[in-house]
Inverse folding.
């Protein structure tokens, strides 16, 4: 697979200042005696030491939108870090080497292997849960640090040598979705979910929480390898009919963007499914759901069913959040729709861990990374990890598809706090 890179321009000065204060500043004291600019010696007088951060991400296939955003955000972080290092006269810089994971589990393993073969053993990986599971044996055996930005399956909330997750397990999202649907008066839910670690994990947590609070749930799994979901949509329609079409019945879709496009296409033509509410997890939220990438007919269906979902994002933005969002908007003409914040923060975390140990050593980085994360506040909020190497807590924003001024868009309408367990609407 060929290596791909992006070259975003330098972010605004305000972003640089915030990152210097909130990220680099927090690192002083991570390792005894560590001061930025003195930990790594250049290879010769006046020479600059360059460290490579590998990026394995979905640059083709159904996750392409997410993958490109991941790479762009990672490059933003590298550009900013290099500017900071240059400003202090530190003879160190970073670069990115990327590989396409093809939006498949096999592709993820091949991409990580290709990066390692090229010398990159500290890697930011888009790595949804099935992909992270696919690379697990290889990275632990070969001592390769992997920071996943999108894996959330509760089934992977176990010790994972050399693997870290920039998102918390779906224990949190399951509770957030349960609170969301209950807040809307929903009592009966048909859950249509990917039959993989991601879908199994979140659907299981949701069902446990929702039924404990008096709701009724029917689980309908689908195979993510299919190219068409007409039969699966028909099953969901039948199950919705058995509950009864009413304001208290809903469909919860737990899947990915490309699957949602096909599923919505069939659901829009069904005699039952356009007449109940639809909700979703974060995995489907992408540009292909809305024009111009997606069809106006599909977007019209989404607004008709009042499509509403959750997405991992800090409930109360901090200064780094605001600076990152502004810089991303300025560079790319739109805000991040998926995992841009996690990619940005994850890249900073890997670079800061390398600086903290003073060398490109995945074994040492694996050891110090949790301590570095504990002292970081990024665009996505505090980055403290739990004993499994997963983000220790996670807030979620609530979004819905809206049609305003002759245009469809995703609008944030509320947030769920992992600290209080409360759901609030703006």
């Amino acid at each position: 697979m060929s290596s791909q890179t992006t070259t975003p321009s330098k972010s605004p000065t305000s972003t640089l200042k915030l990152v210097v204060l909130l990220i680099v500043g927090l690192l002083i004291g991570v390792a005894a005696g560590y001061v930025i600019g003195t930990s790594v010696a250049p290879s010769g007088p006046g020479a600059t030491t360059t460290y490579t951060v590998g990026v394995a991400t979905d640059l083709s296939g159904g996750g392409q939108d997410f993958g490109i955003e991941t790479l762009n955000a990672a490059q933003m972080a590298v550009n900013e870090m290099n500017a900071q290092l240059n400003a202090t006269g530190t003879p160190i810089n970073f670069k990115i080497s990327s590989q396409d994971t093809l939006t498949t589990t096999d592709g993820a393993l091949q991409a990580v292997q290709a990066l390692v073969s090229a010398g990159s053993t500290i890697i930011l990986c888009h790595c949804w849960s099935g992909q992270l599971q696919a690379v697990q044996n290889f990275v632990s055996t070969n001592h390769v640090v992997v920071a996943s930005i999108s894996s959330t399956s509760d089934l992977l909330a176990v010790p994972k040598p050399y693997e870290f997750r920039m998102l918390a397990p779906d224990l949190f999202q399951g509770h957030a979705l349960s609170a969301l649907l209950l807040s809307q008066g929903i009592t009966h839910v048909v859950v249509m979910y990917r039959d993989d670690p991601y879908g199994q994990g979140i659907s299981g947590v949701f069902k446990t929480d929702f039924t404990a609070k008096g709701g009724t749930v029917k689980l309908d799994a689908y195979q993510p390898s299919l190219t068409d979901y007409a039969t699966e949509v028909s099953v969901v329609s039948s199950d919705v009919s058995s509950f009864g079409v009413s304001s208290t019945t809903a469909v919860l879709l737990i899947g990915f963007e490309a699957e949602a496009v096909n599923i919505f296409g069939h659901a829009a033509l069904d005699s039952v499914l356009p007449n109940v509410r639809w909700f979703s997890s974060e995995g489907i939220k992408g540009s292909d759901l809305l024009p111009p990438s997606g069809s106006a007919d599909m977007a019209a269906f989404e607004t008709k069913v009042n499509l509403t979902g959750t997405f991992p994002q800090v409930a109360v933005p901090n200064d780094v959040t605001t600076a990152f969002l502004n810089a991303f908007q300025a560079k790319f003409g739109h805000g991040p729709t998926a995992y841009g914040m996690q990619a940005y923060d994850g890249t900073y975390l890997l670079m800061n861990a390398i600086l903290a140990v003073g060398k490109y050593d995945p074994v040492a980085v694996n050891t110090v990374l949790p301590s570095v994360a504990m002292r970081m506040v990024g665009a996505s909020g505090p980055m403290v990890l739990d004993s499994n190497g997963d983000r220790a807590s996670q807030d979620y924003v609530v979004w819905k598809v809206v049609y305003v001024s002759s245009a469809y868009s995703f609008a944030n309408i509320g947030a769920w706090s992992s600290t209080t367990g409360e759901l609030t609407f703006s």
Remarks:
- The longest helix spans residues 64-87.
- The chain has twelve helices and 15 strands.
- The radius of gyration is 21 Å.
- Residues 153 and 201 are 5 Å apart (CA to CA).
